[in-house]
Write a structure and sequence with these properties.
The protein has helices at residues 2-17, 68-85, 132-135; strands at residues 23-26, 42-43, 52-59, 89-105, 114-131. A hairpin with an 8-residue loop joins strand 4 (89-105) and strand 5 (114-131). The chain has 137 residues and is an alpha+beta fold. The longest helix is centred in the middle third of the chain and has 18 residues, at 68-85. Strands 1-3-5-4-2 form a 5-stranded mixed β-sheet.
Length: 137
């Protein structure tokens, strides 16, 4: 009985720590009103020269591969988070891998089984910014 309770607690902990949700880490105390859902948010791979205020580091949800469909979903996730933070643009967008170690599903036996292994997930990271000339408006 005691071992099963411990196993359930460990599984719950793994589940909670392994949540695959987008995240935003604020890097300024300035707050901006959210933008409407149809507001345009510019997306840039590199940095921009226009005067701006960085407001947050954004991470999209993780996906198992870098397919075009998943890239579209990652970009949409960054745009949605940027709108909620009141950002005008997201810059320094890049795809990053996340390596997972531990138990993975073993597909060889005809029953559910686990084996040690490694696998990767991919997500996009970018920096949400507000143009400085719009801050005074």
């Amino acid at each position: 009985m005691k071992n099963s309770v411990i196993l359930i607690l460990i599984l719950c902990l793994v589940f909670l720590l392994g949540c695959n949700t987008p995240s935003a880490q604020r890097i300024t105390e300035d707050k901006f009103p959210p933008k409407p859902p149809d507001a345009d948010v510019e997306m840039f791979v590199g940095t921009i020269s226009q005067d701006h205020i960085p407001i947050a580091i954004l991470n999209s949800r993780r996906y198992p591969d870098q397919s075009e469909e998943n890239k579209v979903l990652m970009l949409a996730s960054l745009k949605d988070m940027a709108r909620k933070l009141g950002a005008d643009a997201v810059m320094e967008i890049r795809i990053l891998p996340k390596r997972f170690e531990g138990m993975v599903v073993d597909e060889k036996p005809p029953f559910p089984a686990w084996k040690p292994g490694n696998y990767y997930g991919y997500f996009m990271r970018g920096k949400a910014i507000v143009y400085r000339d719009k801050k005074s408006q």
